[in-house]
Each structure stands twice: as structure tokens, then as C-alpha cells.
Amino acid sequence: MQRYLSTLARVLLAQVFLIQMIVLIVGFFSSPDGYEQYRAGLGSLSLPGIFAPLIILIQVVGGLSLLLGFKTKFFALLMAIYAVIISFLLHLPVLQYLAIAGGLLMLYLNPINAFSIDSLKK
Fold first, then answer.
1. Is residue 116 within 8 Å of 69, Cβ to Cβ?
2. pTM for the full predicted model
3. What is the pLDDT along the chain (122 residues), one digit of tens a residue?
């Protein structure tokens, strides 16, 4: 039972990052200059333009890796650190992102669960 609940936790944590990216990418295509608006929004927070593709890349790769259970331990720790840093940089709700980081750290401690690529290797 614990393996299945751990799988559910992994999927729910992955969806936080993946749904954010789906909404962001849909926003890019809904406006001709959607990506430039996103970069300008990051610029208004004093972040250089290089952060736009980095944020997208980290969230897509990290979210998909968590969803599929690939290198779960590594990506759970990476995404926990990312969640804390990004909450401060983008002035997001800090307590919410600390809670997400806490869930990711629990996943880091229990990386092997059902229905994951990692469990197929073992």
C-alpha cells in the first residue's frame, strides 16, 4: 500500500510543475508575443532573459521525470531546491512552495515506488 501512496504523491507533485508549464505554453500560443510578455514579466522582477528558458526547461524535465519516476531521488531533490528558490525569486506564496518542497523531500527519502521507471530497473 505504501508504494502506491508514494506513487500517488509522486504524480501529484509532478502535476504541480507540469500543469504550470501547460498553462504557460498555452499562453505563449494564445498571443503572438506571449513568450516576450513572459520574459518581460520576469524582467520586471529583475531576472535576466536567460531565466525564461531555464525555468521552462527545469519544470518540464523535472516534472516529466517525477511523473515517470525516472531518477526520482535526484529530481525530487532538484525540484525541492528549485521550488524554494523560485518562490523567492518570483515572489510566489512562500509557504505553499515550502510545502511542495517538503513533499519532494519526502519523495527523495522514499524514491522507489510502484509504476516508475526506477522500479523497473531494480
1. yes
2. 0.91
3. 777 888 999 999 999 999 999 999 999 999 899 999 999 999 999 999 899 999 999 999 999 999 999 999 999 999 999 999 999 999 999 999 999 999 999 999 988 788 899 888 76
